[in-house]
């Protein structure tokens, strides 16, 4: 096993999750050619093909499936060992880096503050902003220990803990939009209104949940522009390039004269979920999960 490169293993694990070289490259922040290079190096080391790639699909070989089953728990255990050493080196018991998409809701921030001040374990929580378009990337790369992200969460290798901060949804439209003066709009009235969506590397299922292609009754909703950040979305809205579904706290935090935020009826509430990597749960994460569960 001499010269084994951890990056090759990380590449294989991400590719096994995505089964798509482009999405794997986005998650690893490398080029597609680099993903191919790392995979070929690992396959040479193993001595056989682990992944089959055609012009239409990517899939694991039977050996690749078996390798994945053995590798994932071993890799998670190795990552957990490194994390424990990092925590010991910091000399701070229970230090957590927690990512959030955008501003942290007042109730959530209060729960985090109370946890830090009232903990006899000396828990320290550092809040990190994570990109709207990459809800899970910082977590997978180990840049944060847990993340409060907008639901849904359907990610292999990640654990979804408590769901919290359930809030009504609003429709952000330009101040000159016909909906701007309305007291509310229904979900069915979104038909025909282009919705600004969140672009890659956000998973497609996650983006569709926040910019659905149909109303609950099945009427089509045209796609709008794809953005990477909330500020890009707000700019697109203000310039009349579409509308965007946002939770009520985000709307209140980002109020501005050229955008109106109109309540939407008939849509499920927006919710956050606390997510962490499988095999990396710590007492501090459990304490945070318990505190956030009370803000639901």
UniProtKB/TrEMBL annotation:
Signal peptide per UniProt: none
Transcription regulation keyword on record: yes
Gene3D superfamilies in UniProt: Periplasmic binding protein-like II, Winged helix-like DNA-binding domain superfamily/Winged helix DNA-binding domain
Keywords carried by this UniProt record: DNA-binding, Transcription, Transcription regulation
Domain spans labelled HTH lysR-type: 4-61
Annotated family: Belongs to the LysR transcriptional regulatory family.
Name listed for the protein in its UniProt record: LysR family transcriptional regulator
Taxonomic source organism: Nocardiopsis sediminis
